[in-house]
Amino acid sequence: MQTYRAVHLIDRPQQEITADVFSIETATIPTPQDGEFLVKVTHLSLDPAMRGWMSSDENSYIPPVKLGEVMRASGLGEVVSSKHPDYPEGTKVLGMTGMQEYLISDGTGLNKIPAEIPAEAVLAVISLPGVTAYHGLYQVLQPKPGQTLVVTAAAGSVGSLVGQMAKNLGLRVVGVVGSEEKAQWITQELGFNAALNYHDQDFAEQLAAATPDGIDLFFENTGGVAQAPIFARMNAHGRIAVCGLIAEYNKDQPDPGPSWMNIIKRRLSIQGFTMPDHFDRFADYGQALGGMLMKGELKYRTHVIHGIENAPDAIKLLFSGDNKGKLIVEF
Ligand SMILES: NC(=O)c1ccc[n+]([C@@H]2O[C@H](COP(=O)([O-])OP(=O)(O)OC[C@H]3O[C@@H](n4cnc5c(N)ncnc54)[C@H](OP(=O)(O)O)[C@@H]3O)[C@@H](O)[C@H]2O)c1
Hints:
Elements: E1 3-9, E2 22-28, E3 37-45, H1 49-53, E4 74-82, E5 92-95, E6 102-105, E7 110-113, H2 119-126, H3 128-141, E8 148-152, H4 157-168, E9 172-177, H5 180-189, E10 194-197, H6 203-210, E11 215-220, H7 227-232, E12 234-242, H8 261-265, E13 269-272, H9 282-294, E14 302-306, H10 311-314, H11 317-320, E15 326-330
Parallel strand pairs: 8-9, 8-11, 9-10, 11-12, 12-13, 14-15
Antiparallel strand pairs: 1-2, 3-4, 3-6, 3-15, 4-5, 5-7
Helix pairs in contact: 2-3, 3-4, 3-9
């Protein structure tokens, strides 16, 4: 009897994720019944949001993973056995597969993916990072040519796409990153106007020099030390898209937020968003992103880890900044 492995959440992290909150368990590969099919998961997407799903917070946009359950994760897989007429063997599917090597599905929550699109392009651009970047930029920030945009976690999966799309629209784009290597990648390879390292003591001075006309649009992915200096340079009628606050995900208490006084004085619009609210737009966004990719307007890079047994540890790379590009586990 053939078996497969699955990563279960058995405890909740106190702050940073530790190995003992997961357990890798083995089970027998199930057989699909009528109306079902068996998916072999080939790639998992590791995302900062997973840290939130591991907490006990019931008051968020999505319920927490229950203790003992397979850890929630999105992934890409292939149908290897089917009793469902719409999902023949060989169909590629994308969705919330969970951190496991196989799953049985009736198609609920899974999207078919054209076989010719490389797995890494799907996970780095066409799926969550791309739709998040697209929605946050076009719908929330509503960019106009000539404006100055600052994006944090600028070399990451979401930030690198935001910056490239904004450049293609004719904006001045400044990216905030945590290393010299990432600064070089976004300026030399992706064409950002400037890159700043938030670890630098004189970050605020560097930001002022890189944004001589102030900041019109702020795509916030991190929170942390960069937030206040960026907020202080927002222009009148500036817009802020609050996409993520990864600097806070491992903390018990949130950092103090920006003063509301500047929101009045500068007449700022600040909007948080989460993509599960916008599933109905994923197909349209995916088409637009696919078009940009085909035209060579978007570059991406991936950081690939091999083997499900290494997935739990790999999530930590997102929090240390050691991932260089979209973090993926390949089975
Ligand atoms: N709202 C939504 O629906 C939605 C959807 C997807 C993602 N997100 C959010 O978008 C953000 C980026 O996600 P991603 O998938 O693109 O991840 P990512 O940028 O590929 O990886 C995370 C990066 O965050 C940076 N980082 C980690 N800890 C930090 C800290 N304390 N201070 C400053 N930067 C820190 C690191 O880059 P450096 O080396 O540059 O520090 C790290 O590489 C996350 O906050 C995520 O939760 C939101």
